[in-house]
UniProtKB/TrEMBL annotation:
It comes from Gracilibacillus ureilyticus. SUPFAM superfamilies: Thiamin phosphate synthase. One of its GO terms (molecular function) is magnesium ion binding. Mg(2+) binds at D73, D92. This is Thiamine-phosphate synthase. Binds 1 Mg(2+) ion per subunit. Gene3D superfamilies: Aldolase class I. Belongs to the thiamine-phosphate synthase family. GO terms for cellular component: cytoplasm. Its EC number is 2.5.1.3.
């Protein structure tokens, strides 16, 4: 996959905002997010048809802005919504099974918290690795211990050329150091979905992430 898609990877479900989730997503798209993941889980998450309906509406919105639509965890939902990819965690259906029943041209993401998990993700043919949590987060109840910038750098060395994206507690002020540690981008939930001005905040994430990439290239 094109690693530029990971520059600002916005993730959201209906319970990550008190506003209309479609409005929040559209504002983030207007701000220039480069990839979107539908993650409908946890307290007050939608179920059944309401979940599928929201997924399809979000996919249409993403496609109107030429942004790929990824689904978290749920392979059947991703297939029904005709998504562009799936994100798989360590406790989810293994990537090698998932790949057998999904389109070849999908984007396949895998989570890793340590070098061993990253090594397996590379071997199993992931298109990118979600690395975290980098910092403490209130968004994911079962989040592991933060791995910090050192954790990103360690997984960067395992991943080789495979794109990696950092996740967990990421705010605007973290972007520079995260990119310098070797991540190709930042994956953000509350830093964007809870922002007072979603479009402007997404735009700032994009500018910071873009600036750091150019800065690092020119100082190597
Ligand atoms: C880009 C990205 N990276 C990591 C995750 C976390 O996946 P997982 O560990 O399966 O946890 P849940 O999100 O399912 O709670 C992710 N979703 N996206
Ligand atoms: C969904 C998720 N996965 C994580 C991991 O470590 O794999 S941390 C996390 C929550 C990210 O939300 P926020 O940007 O609000 O901290
Ligand atoms: Mg998962």
């Amino acid at each position: 996959m094109d690693k530029e898609l990971l520059r600002v990877y916005f993730i959201m479900g209906s319970n990550n905002t008190t506003r209309d989730p479609l409005t929040v997503l559209e504002e983030a798209l207007q701000g220039g997010i480069t990839l979107f993941q539908f993650r409908e889980k946890g307290k007050n998450a939608l179920k059944g048809k309401a979940k599928l309906d929201l997924a399809i509406k979000m996919k249409r919105l993403c496609h109107a802005y030429n942004i790929p639509f990824i689904v978290n965890d749920e392979v059947d939902l991703a297939l029904e919504a005709k998504a562009d990819g799936i994100h798989i965690g360590q406790d989810d259906e293994p990537l090698i099974h998932v790949k057998k029943r999904c389109p070849e041209n999908w984007i396949y993401g895998v989570s890793a918290t340590n070098e061993l998990e990253a090594r397996h993700a590379v071997q199993d043919g992931a298109d990118y690795i979600g690395v975290g949590p980098v910092y403490g987060t209130n968004t994911k109840e079962d989040a592991k211990q933060p791995i910090g910038l050192k954790g990103i750098a360690e997984i960067r060395s395992i991943a080789g050329e495979l794109p990696i994206v950092a996740i967990g507690g990421i705010k605007l002020g973290h972007v520079f150091n995260i990119r310098k540690a070797g991540a190709d981008g930042v994956s953000v939930i509350s830093g964007i979905s809870h922002a007072e001005k979603v479009r402007q905040t997404a735009e700032l994430f994009c500018n910071y992430s873009h600036f750091t990439a150019s800065y690092s290239k020119n100082t190597k």
